[in-house]
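Retry 2 of 3 after timeout on previous attempt. Resubmitting structure tokens to design endpoint.
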């Protein structure tokens, strides 16, 4: 079981529009970044997922489109841009993950009742094993976080080693290129 981490939509546009959402993210940043560090240390894929708005206000190349600097995403991480709530919908993410040998996705980011939840169910539709990270998914409404954690299979960062069945050699394989996902830049 080779896992990939999906870091979904922690973009300036959404955080600047909602004080409640920003507060929810701020409460969970330590967990989100701990998940990123865990994946990075084991050389497992990290995919930063960006949402481009249909109204043209949140587009690549704008500050609104970028992740908040507090999230430990690096240029070498894979990146995809989506136009739908489900990160698998018309992005090529499924093929990119399969080329990397990933069968499992672990989700942090936004939002517990929106894109993170849609991606969780989209992963299952594509025959991926999916987990939400406990305290790693935020929302403008804390009840939505509770609900998502209740209905989804949720694991804590502390459980990663046990549940994700880490094999140190498994994560060290070279990455394969994909025409569907944006290759990391150095």
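Retry 2 succeeded. Sequence:
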């Amino acid at each position: 079981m080779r896992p990939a981490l999906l870091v979904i939509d922690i973009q300036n546009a959404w955080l600047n529009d909602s004080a409640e959402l920003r507060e929810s993210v701020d409460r969970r940043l330590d967990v989100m970044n701990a998940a990123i560090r865990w994946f990075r240390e084991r050389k497992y894929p990290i995919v930063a997922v960006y949402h481009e708005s249909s109204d043209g206000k949140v587009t690549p190349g704008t500050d609104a489109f970028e992740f908040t600097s507090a999230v430990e995403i690096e240029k070498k991480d894979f990146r995809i841009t989506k136009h739908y709530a489900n990160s698998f919908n018309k992005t090529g993410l499924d093929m990119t993950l399969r080329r990397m040998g990933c069968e499992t996705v672990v989700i942090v980011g936004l939002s517990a009742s929106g894109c993170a939840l849609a991606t969780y169910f989209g992963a299952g539709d594509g025959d991926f094993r999916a987990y939400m990270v406990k305290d790693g998914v935020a929302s403008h409404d804390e009840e939505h976080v509770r609900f998502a954690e209740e209905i989804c299979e949720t694991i804590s960062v502390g459980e990663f080693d046990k549940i994700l069945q880490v094999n140190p050699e498994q994560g060290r394989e070279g990455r394969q290129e994909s025409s569907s996902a944006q290759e990391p830049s150095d």
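Attempt log closed. Residues 170-180 have pLDDT under 50 and may be disordered.
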